[in-house]
Amino acid sequence: KLIVPYKLKEILVTQAQLHNKVQELGRWISADYEGQELVLIGILKGGAIFMSDLMRAITIPLSIDYMSVSSYGTSATSSGAIVIRKDIDADIRGKHVLIVEDLIDTGLTLNHLKEHFRSRDTLSVRICTILNKPSRRQIDVQVEYPGIEIPDAFVVGYGLDYADQYRNLPEVWVVDTEG
Ligand code: PRP
Ligand code: MN
Ligand code: MG
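# PRP complex -> structure
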């Protein structure tokens, strides 16, 4: 089935804004976890682009792993159902875990992930996201490293997709849903 693309309306977050926020988060995380054993866990697929930028903005030793989690399927709004497609391979016992996401919207994905890690004998589990839509929250999940706050618009790029497309856009765009 061919997916008819929406038109891109305007840039909401520029490459420079993304870059500056990534550097700021990197400095902040480097200071907080200095001398500790840190594991970054990137949440596929959306988190992959931010993850690769963030890890290079962190100046302390760390290890990485990835999980594949999905809630949206190909629809534009959350279905509420979260599926773990791939768990981590790494042993995170006795380590500090930092979950790396592209967007926190309803909070359902992160809430589910925090529950998932709760019983795994980690020293801590925190959340870092590059984009945050607090106005859409259904569950009040604590975000220790919130990135850029955005309004409740349909956005794509920098990892965020519509029907698995547009993730490769280097900035965050608003999609024209009227067109
Ligand atoms: C998106 C986004 C977050 C999640 C946020 O992922 O990347 O992981 O939704 O939404 P929530 O706060 O309402 O749970 P998606 O499920 O679309 O999978 P993807 O990363 O593979 O696109
Ligand atoms: Mn995601
Ligand atoms: Mg998605």
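# post-check
The first helix runs from residue 15 to 32.
The mean pLDDT is 92.
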